[in-house]
Amino acid sequence: MWTTPLTMLLCASFGVVEAQIAYTGHLSELRIKELSQLAMRMEHSINAKKYACDSYYDHVCSRNRPLFSVMGHMPPSSDLIQLLTKLQNDPEQFEAKQKLIDFFISCNTLKSLQDCYRETFEYFKPLFGYIITKDLVEGSSHELRDFRELIQRFVDRSKSVFGTDSHPLRNRLQTYKEKFATPSIYFYAGDLNREYAGLRIYRESYEHNLRNIEQHRKRNSTFELGVQRTMLDWSLYLYQSRFKPMSYFYPTFTVHLYMTMFNISERQRDSTHFREEVECLKLPQYVNVLSEARMLAVIYLKSFRHTWQEYSDWIQSSTKHRAIYDQENEILRHYQLSNKRIFFTLFAQNFCEFGKELAEHVFYLGLKENTDFFNTYSCGYQTEITRNCV
Ligand SMILES: *[C@@H]1O[C@H](CO)[C@@H](O)[C@H](O)[C@H]1NC(C)=O
Ligand SMILES: *[C@@H]1O[C@H](CO)[C@@H](O)[C@H](O)[C@H]1NC(C)=O
């Protein structure tokens, strides 16, 4: 089905054998390896020349290489190759998959393999959702279990934070937790065939294919809306998050749930209380004069505190969690890192795009008066406690 050189290349570049995976303590070899890789990527992402306690923004943002900014960005090339190879080797043959393969072949007559992997991923994401949920996410139960637990913890905890009244987001999350018990049923071959039914792909003509794909993308895809969209986005997120520590999941996922909830609840609150809180926080003048900046500062601050609390609770909630946390820290120590540093860095990098001034004030309020933060970075000082304001 593939042209010969392509087949050889794909097979050569992906040789994972699904053999018995060795464990040390609670961590599999794969998780241990990923910790080291995460640590190395972090070295390239932060600016070690900037002292964290002076300007955290400069420390985590100034190299302009956030480790993780939005859910569902493009996977690195090695992952794209892995996904395409898995798809190719998957025994189920169906029309939509054949179109993807034909597109890849047409692309490769004109472009580099690397570019074709990227383009194919971009245009055929739902098929990657298919292989991820079939082969990778459900197979490695640790991610899926942790992810579902993460949702449940948020749902439970959010009741004490936002009140026990039923809330549309909370109800939806509860449903998603159920759906992620069997995510693969959202990516059946038959549905994917229907999704791509109108798309014509020719091995011989890349230009035609591009034009057809542009046309195809103008119509409403079932994977761009509603449940299907979330199942796809979160499946891709899970794929990117394989073998990661919990200090990664909380500041990249849970924090977004809190921000979504606070973005609703803070805007509905009685304005007198809100004004009092903001006064107590002593926001800098330029934030204070802009009502939207003031609002965002409060939303970020609260989201940070609750996400941090939730992660801390996770560590404390069982001896196994504690042991995992300690074992990970032991490995990270070789890189002058720790789970807490991973958490703080990833959390802060959510805000790099807001620019130095606003981000720095959110950090100032949220991080620098957090005992764990200044102990982690040995800042040796504690700024004025504003904890009781909000
Ligand atoms: C896409 O959806 C919009 C809004 O639901 C609708 O108005 C439009 O006609 C749809 N387009 C196609 C091509 O189905
Ligand atoms: C927050 O709420 C505002 C107003 O309701 C909305 O325009 C904005 O898109 C929301 N932001 C996020 C990140 O949900």
Automatic annotation (TrEMBL):
Keywords: Signal. Residues 1-19 form the signal peptide. PROSITE patterns: NEPRILYSIN. One of its GO terms (molecular function) is metalloendopeptidase activity. One of its GO terms (biological process) is proteolysis. It comes from the Eukaryota. InterPro entries: Peptidase_M13 (IPR000718). The keyword Signal applies. This is Uncharacterized protein LOC111602605. It comes from Drosophila hydei (Fruit fly). The lineage of its organism: Eukaryota, Metazoa, Ecdysozoa, Arthropoda, Hexapoda.
